[in-house]
Amino acid sequence: MPTNRIIQPLPFKGGWDTSLGPQAAEVTHLLRAENVYYELDGGVRKMPGADNLNATQLTEGGVAVTVMSLFDFWKSGTAGTPVQKHMAYAGTKILKEDLDGVFDTLTTGLEADKPSSFTSMNDIAIWSSTSNTDVPQSWDQSAGSTSTLAGSPPNFAFAVPHRNRMWAAGVASNPSRLYYSVLDSAADWTGAGSGSIDIDINDGDNITGLASHKQRLWVFKGPNTGSISYITGSAPTGTDAYARVPFNRGVPCVAHQTVVTYLNDVAFLSNRGLHSLTATEAFGDLKEGFLSFPIQSIFTDELAVANLNLSHGVNHRGRGLLMWSVRQSGQSQNNWVTAMDYRFQPGRFSLMTPYKAASLAVMLNASKPTLYSGGYDGYVLQHDQSNRNIMDVAYTAKVQLPFLHHKAPDLMKMSAWLRVGIVPQGDSDITVQWQNDENEVVSGTVSQSSGAVLGGTTGFTLDTDTLGGANYVQRYLELPGSYKTQQLTFSQAGLNEDMEIHEVAVQLEPSGMEEI
To answer: What is the dihedral sign for C-alpha 211, 48, 358, 135?
Structure first.
């Protein structure tokens, strides 16, 4: 029988984007994408939970300390089996954890709450910070405490290994000087083959970050005008001598711990947004070339820019995510984590809100890359947990679509029903909210229960019930009322309750005498 109803699929064609406005013909972007990760088909799933790594809170004088940095330290040794230790800088201490959930003190008496860096070379871990009094420390997994890094190094704030040398910067007395160690040694900074390179001295900026990428050492300056250079060559002298090549000026890096390598690129955080080397080369300091362009209003209007130097970035390779901890204006702690899924082009953003991360790290857990965060409460969180809770506290996953007019913004229409394609994750409900034009928001639910199960109170009825555990089901919900534009929001807020949405569609029909 002829009908003027049409089925309108609404595939998610983009991620969280505040630049495209609140109205669209189709789901080109999401107005909110909180506490969700993306599936490769564009669907969304509530992000995994997190639990304490350490059962005992880290305190000093009875007060919880801030975990400013974390490190996954592997030592090859000579036994043929690498040994893993977790390391942390918290309060005034450097600590280690033997994969037993207990942090043991290696060093105490440091300045607290300084931006800091861990790295490793030649089977020793090296810690340094922005403190002008604390000197770089080293640890070999065997000693009961760290030691002052040997070889008379400068008092650097951060370092990276590059082409069999350790390179360092962030020295207060020489803020534009890049130092390098002797070949094959991170503990000799004065012998033959060591040296330094000055990067645009007296330009009003300091060296704020380093990255070893594709046989080049990238040198970032900031936090004011900013510049990027790279070092070529493999030795101080000879036919392949070190040379500095200017790359860009005008994009300042705020801090070393915000520099992250991924794929064939390097991402970093400035006082204006997120950038990559590739985009910076193509667009310079034009905001259209920022990685964060889709959510640029968040950086300009909502973040505490003066505290971005306390942000922390990681590449969660197991999930294809770049993640940075940031803080809103008026907050005293990093209370957000922005995530960009770089498996999509352009990348799709989402926002994590249920935990506060002074530091982030990706460390192997049973050979699986796992996200960890250091909190302000003396705890290290181990993320990527199957249960949907943060230390036994519930959080809300929310996805909000723009107001949709289905390519007919001036005509009235009705959605007879909404179809939601889901992978059931338990027996909980997903909350659906819809707003027709300027009318009140109305709520309903779709069930994730995928059918009856054998046994139980009422049992299973042949030819009536269906067995639970379906991989994919469709749920329907009536959406009464007419509109020119309609907004849909999906959320799941239950403790240890999940949601996974892959498909959304509506059945459209004319309202009154008007046609679509």
So the answer is: negative
**Number of Cα atoms under 13 Å in the Cβ half of residue 91:** 20
Structure tokens at 162: 């590059």
* Tens-place pLDDT, residues 469-498: 458 999 999 998 899 999 999 999 999 999
- Are β-strands 93-97 and 500-510 bridged in parallel, bridged antiparallel, or unpaired? unpaired
Which pLDDT value is given to residue 284?
A: 72
Q: Output the six-digit token pair for 34.
A: 């909180």
Q: How far apart are CA 245 and CA 494, in angstroms?
A: 54
> Of 115, 190, 109, which Cα lies nearest the Cα of 149?
190
Return the pLDDT at 449.
87
Q: Do 457 and 436 contact (CB within 8 A), yes or no?
A: no
Among candidate residues 215, 213, 217, the one with its CA nearest the CA of residue 166: 217
From the CB of residue 478, how many other CB atoms can be counted at a distance below 10 Å?
9
Residues of the chain predicted below pLDDT 70: 1-4, 285-288, 450-470, 512-516
What pLDDT shows up at residue 261?
Answer: 97
Cβ within 8 Å of residue 494, ≥6 positions away: 388, 394, 428
pTM: 0.93
Tally Cβ neighbours within 10 Å of residue 332.
10
The radius of gyration computed from the CA coordinates of the chain, to the nearest angstrom, equals 26
The confidence score (pLDDT) of residue 468 equals: 47
Query: According to the model, what pLDDT value does residue 5 have?
Result: 81
d(CA 341, CA 16): 11
- Concatenating the DSSP letter of every residue in 264-301 gives TEEEEE-SS-EEEHHHHHHHTT-GGGSTTGGGHHHHHH
Distance CA 146, CA 141 (A): 9
